[in-house]
Amino acid sequence: MVQINFQQTIERLKDTGFSPIPNVVKITVPDAKRVLWAGIRYFTGENARWLPEYEEVAGWLAGNEGRGLLCFGNCGRGKTLICGKILPLVLNHYCRKVVSCYDAQQMNADLDAVKQKHIIYVDDIGTENLSVKYGEKRLAFAELADEAEKKGKLLILTTNLTIDELREKYGERTIDRLRAITKTVLFSGESLRK
Predict the structure, then answer these.
(1) Helix (H), strand (E) at residue 60
(2) CA dihedral over 161, 162, 168, 169, signed as positive or negative
(3) pTM of the model
(4) Does pLDDT of 133 surpass 90?
(5) Residue 12, SS3?
């Protein structure tokens, strides 16, 4: 009996849409900490502060290993600034990647369009309601997480909810997927907003 050559068989089946190996997005930004700090200073000026959690974001930016980023925790600590403003600019400049940016309500309103993108930023996950379109009820974020795992989409996510609160809203299955496809970074401490 002839042994299967998995790589050849995958290549042969590619035209059928069968893809058992997700097409993950790998990111490597040289001198990531300096680049992130420059972005923080650009947007916050003389009020710029380097917080401990930013080290983890800089580490992700230096080499993401094909995983997305989930920043969660207290409000006013820079999650949206970093993920929604700085990272899209940095990924475009250094990696020639385009990040499609949405808030949770936009994701909910046009989930099918969002799922077509390959690098997706969603702000404030957990604040959206159940998506209902033509009477069909959908849990948009759970669908997006599933799609990201299957197809290697890169998710950059922010939320003020805890992991337990996310689990309560989306279920263990979605949280398990997020653990597999993202690096989680806890933003804790007092708000920097004045």
Answers:
(1) helix 52-62
(2) positive
(3) 0.89
(4) no
(5) helix
- What tokens appear for 159 in the block? 């939320």
Q: Provide the pairing of β-strand 182-187 with 68-73.
A: parallel
Question: What Cα–Cα distance (Å) separates residue 140 from each residue in 49, 53, 90?
Answer: 35, 28, 27
> How many other C-beta atoms lie within 10 A of the C-beta of residue 74?
15
φ, ψ at 18 (rounded to 5°): -75, 125
Structure token pair of residue 67: 């995983």
User: Residue 153 has which token pair?
Assistant: 């989409």
Cβ atoms within 10 Å, residue 136:
7
Tokens 């197809």 correspond to what residue?
Answer: 151
What is the b/e burial string over 90-113, where b = at least 16 CB atoms within 10 angstroms of the residue's CB? bbeebbebebebbbbeebbeebee
Tens-place pLDDT, residues 39-76: 999 999 998 999 999 999 999 999 999 999 999 998 88
Residue with tokens 């990040």: 99
